[in-house]
C-alpha cells in the first residue's frame, strides 16, 4: 500500500478536525491546490469497512463512527427499569383523566400514592405538572407529555385504548373483570 499523497493527507486532517460536515469548496479553502474531490473519494474508499467512515451528507462530507460499532462507544448501558404497579396505575389514571390532582389519583386508585411514584413518572418525562386547580388549597394538576405519546406510539390521547380494546388484548386484570361482571349482574338484578 502506497502512502497517501500530501493532498489526501491534508484533506484527511481537515475533515478529522472539522466540527461540522464540510463541502468540497470549504475543504479546498483550507487545503489550497490539488484535486480535493479525488482526495475525498480516495479517503471514502480507504475508510470503507473500518471503525470510522467518511460519509457524504448532501453536498458535505464528515467522519462518523461506523454504524455497526456504535455500541462500543456506549459507556452507560441503558438499564431496563420496570414501572411498579402503582406507577403503571398512576400513569394510566393521569393519561385517561388529565388534568388530574394527586387527591383525584388517590381517590380513583383507592390508596395513597407515594411522592416517589410521581417523581419516577416525571423523571421518565411522561408526566409533568400542569398548573393548579382553582379550588381551595389550589392543588397541583398533572398531565402526560409528548414524550409519553412518543414512547407508547400514540399520535394523541384519543389513541389510548378503550376498555373493549384492553379486554380483547387480555390486558385487564381478572379481578377487574370479576368486579365488572358483578356490577353488571347487580344492575340486571335491580331491573
From TrEMBL:
Q: Which Gene3D superfamilies does the entry link to? A: Winged helix-like DNA-binding domain superfamily/Winged helix DNA-binding domain
List the residue ranges forming a coiled coil, or say none: none
The keyword Nucleotide-binding is assigned to this record: no
Keywords of the record, alphabetical order, are:
Cell cycle, Cell division, Chromosome partition, Cytoplasm
**Is Cytoplasm one of the keywords UniProt gives this record?**
yes
Q: What is this protein called?
A: SMC-Scp complex subunit ScpB
Source organism per entry reads Sphingomonas olei
Task: Please state the gene responsible for encoding this protein.
Answer: scpB
